[in-house]
Design brief:
single chain; mainly alpha; globular
Length: 394
Amino acid sequence: MICLKCIYLKLDMIVGVFKMAILPLLGQLADEHGRKPMLILTTCTTIFPFAMLAWNQSKGFVYAYYVLRTISYILSQGSIFCIAVAYAADVVDDGKRAAAFSWITGLSSASHVLGNVLALFLPENYIFPVSIALLIICPVYMQFFLVETVKLAPERNQDLACLAKMIRVLHKRYKSMRDAATIVFSSPTLRGISLVSFFYELGMSGITYVIWYYLKAAFGFGKNQFSEILIMVEIGSIVSQMLVLPLINPLVGEKIILCIALLASIAYALFNGLAWASWVPYMSAFFKVVVVLVKPSTYAIISKASSSTNQGKAQGFIAGVEAIASFLSPLVMSPLTSWFLSDNAPFNCKGFSLVCAGISMVIALWCAGVLKPEAISSQDSESEVIEAPLLGDS
């Protein structure tokens, strides 16, 4: 069991490294080759790891599961949301996008709750077959009912030799990556929101990585306490994302919601880091219900600042920035948490690492405060749609 746990952590590190490049790449491919095929591809990869365990649960198959799970996470973790958000931006008006994105993240929270409930009542032998059946429904539904929203450019030079094709593909990928970086850095809004996303993810992913270890060491929390907190957060997240955000967004806008959610993330970090009793983490869980609004409000700001032909590139590039933060954060948070929980700590503050994560989110709040959201005009967007096929052939 210890060996498998070590493998699990190492594979997670590998996933983090590859996601930095894969997320921007999949975003670009979604703009160039369509949202639908990319969504089908990424959702299909989630089927195979569980199919492996459903087939056989011997030691060799468990190792194979971890390998397939790593490949699946590299391709699907984070990218499904990016491409789904880009697809929603194609079919939803600017003023309603925040509500649409909030429903997407809210339904994801609801699926987590329902999945856990389903696992409680299903016989153990049926868990994997039912999970696989539900996963298969996703690509099948998309294949038959999802309408492609991207106008694909005609392919040229089909008769090129294999080596020439490879060189052309690599050159195109390099050019597309450079264009994605240019799109983000040339826009004050996208540049600012990328900083917000980086510092927020740097703090929050670090907290997520060490919070259960910290609560167990500091207050003796077990799986029952963890389950209670998770249920509170998941149910509250459904309400805040699917009901609260759509109601208040027309009144205050995405920037104010983002700032409120970041303020809640700072409170969440400080209350956990400076917790003086075992009931404080329960109270801080209520802040996490507001923190979940960071994602949909961020998606909405990115979407409004990007043209219809660059939705995947912008969302994917900033998701790659978040992946960098998610990779770096545990490298600092894990040893820092262990140090302050040990007898060799320089002063008595067991949650000092969480307080440091809160400082990172203070920087994110400052970046969000000076942010000036902009929107691409419909005229500019339409002109870029016309030019996109011509640019795709160059």
